[in-house]
Amino acid sequence: MGSMQEFIPDAKMFCEISHDEQERLKKVHRKTLVKMWLFDMMINNFDRGGANWLISEDTIHAIDHSHSLRDDEYFGQDITCYTVGGENFFDEEPLPEFIESLGRFLATQEQQKILEDLLVELFNKAFVRKCIKRIKTVGSILVRDGKISHNKYSSGIAVE
Ligand SMILES: Nc1ncnc2c1ncn2[C@@H]1O[C@H](COP(=O)(O)OP(=O)(O)O)[C@@H](O)[C@H]1O
Ligand SMILES: [Mg+2]
Q: Which numbered atom of ligand 1 lies nearest the CA of 13?
């Protein structure tokens, strides 16, 4: 399935900036990187190499989700924690606002229904149920633990 998103004229691909700049900007945007790592987990995206996110002084932009939400035999099974630019973000806390919004999503049937209705426009119902399950699984861990623990989940997360 194709997708469209806003073109970001001033941002560079992470892989095209110097190593020193990479290290500096990774520190600046650390919390956003943790969020992108968690997002990729939810959508089963294994393709977050350095060409698939753009970075600037202000923020980072996730692009290229062509390897996400694949309706294959693995999607409904254990969640793999894929790397972002070759790095993992186990034991790192995203911004509290992110966890709070996940908490609200988990606690609100209405919000879950809105997402379900949007996804049903794109995918079959069985797959949509698997999508919601993945979000709920990762979300519940984050609401409970505040992070994805390396000790517990380095070999994957069982979908509940
Ligand atoms: N929204 C965007 N804003 C700016 N540049 C983009 C955007 N989307 C893609 N690009 C540029 O185009 C390249 C290829 O796009 P991408 O979606 O990664 O396709 P693919 O990797 O399948 O060729 C990216 O690596 C990036 O340089
Ligand atoms: Mg790409």
A: 27
